[in-house]
Design goal:
Bound molecules: zinc ion
Strand content: 15-25%
Strand order of the largest sheet: 5-13-12-8-9
Largest sheet: 5 strands, mixed
Low-confidence stretches: 1-17
Shape: globular
Order of helices and strands: HHHHHHEEHHEEHHHHHHHHHEEEEEEEEE
Number of strands: 13
Number of domains: 3
Number of helices: 17
Distance between the termini: 58 Å
Structural class: alpha+beta
Length: 471
Amino acid sequence: MFTSTSTARSSGSQEKGENKIMDKKEFYNKFSLLSRNFYDNYNRLENLTKQMLAENELDFFKGIEHILGRFESTLPEFCTACENNIENLHQILLVILFLTYLHLNDNISAKRIRKLLRKKGYDEDFPTLLEKVEDFKPNDDKYHGKIITAQYDKRIEKLGKFLISDFDKVEQFIKKKWGNQIPRNIYINLVDSVGPSPFNSLLNCEAYFKVGHYKNAGFDRDTFTSYVVHEIMHFHETSYLFRIFPKYNERSSYKFFDEGYAEWIRAEYINKKKEYRIYADNCAYHMLKSNLFELNDIKDKWFKVMFDYLNCPIYETATSFTFFLEDKYGYDKLDSFWKSIPKYPQVQSWSEYLKLYFGEDLIDLMTEWKEIIINNKGSKKSISKEIITHFEIEHTDNENMVFHYTSKYPLWAGHNIFIYNDEMKLQMIDKVEKYRFQKDGHLKMKSIPSGKLNIAVCFLQYNHNFEYLLS
Ligand SMILES: [Zn+2]
């Protein structure tokens, strides 16, 4: 999957003679220092790593194998180094090893590592995340832009071709937004499956998107492409994050902030910031007032909340917080968040940076945000409008109830539709069809004795509340 595309960045010739013989510690320190501005120093970092490889045995990288996983040119050595230490390899590195084998088109090794991950219980902590990814079989036809190479699975030829058909727009946006502070080659793979999509956080330029829930429709394509922008936003952060890379106990607060931020950028890309803000605030209201989790839980147990409420708008809730920050500090301050990291050389950790940059603790900001959302009952700017044109129960038994609806807009059950019982307790609902955005669709929930349901529908700036009597 190597491409011939290259950027105008300087070649590594300046490195010649620059690096004396270094021991492991010296090398790691130098690598860390250069990584503070990852993309600007990309060539130097890559050459330095290759030089160390040439001068030393692979054992030199024991314990710092991850460095080899950062460059396409050192991936084969990364795999060997990981295999040499496979018994002690951290689960995160095992996932990356799996994704690296896929990148190298070595599906047999990928499947072996996938099996090992299953054995180690990975799927219990991160259910469905890696599912079907190892079955990715790329079609020969691909999108080949200046930066992005996109491939789709052979089994979804028509859909894949359609979904990647406006990637030129993505390239224009990311170039304008971040210039050279993104990877020079980005690989987007469209997998024939549904569920959350993993990306290689070391190589940091490749993502596997599950696209089975998209249809051959304009709305779906725009949504999918905007998620690609969301992902590239994550790639961009890497340029600055190295020095304060979130420690294990900071990963939750980091993800909460980071996912909301990436969604905020996604709204900018689709040019629907005002509308998405109203929607995000309304989603946050349903999530926060229902007391499904504590505020501290989305800060400290992000992954647990996310997987516990996989069909709920958790990302939208995080985005509502990002919009709150934009209100409080202004667009420019928020937009400069990542690129300002080098201006704070004294900070030692992710949480310290966030606190110094905004001047307040994350939890205090979150508390302030929650109060506003609850007081405003979501967004005061919502426009009341009929969204659902038909809603009725289609099937019920002791376990489940299935409803059919028709709508003026494509709705995602659980994300756009909220159902409460007569005691105003939020019910968990799920989509029935494989597709995510449906104008004519079904949704499912557990059977309840309630006589009446209160239904709230949110779609961008619109909301629609109605009651449904269960006879
Ligand atoms: Zn994300």
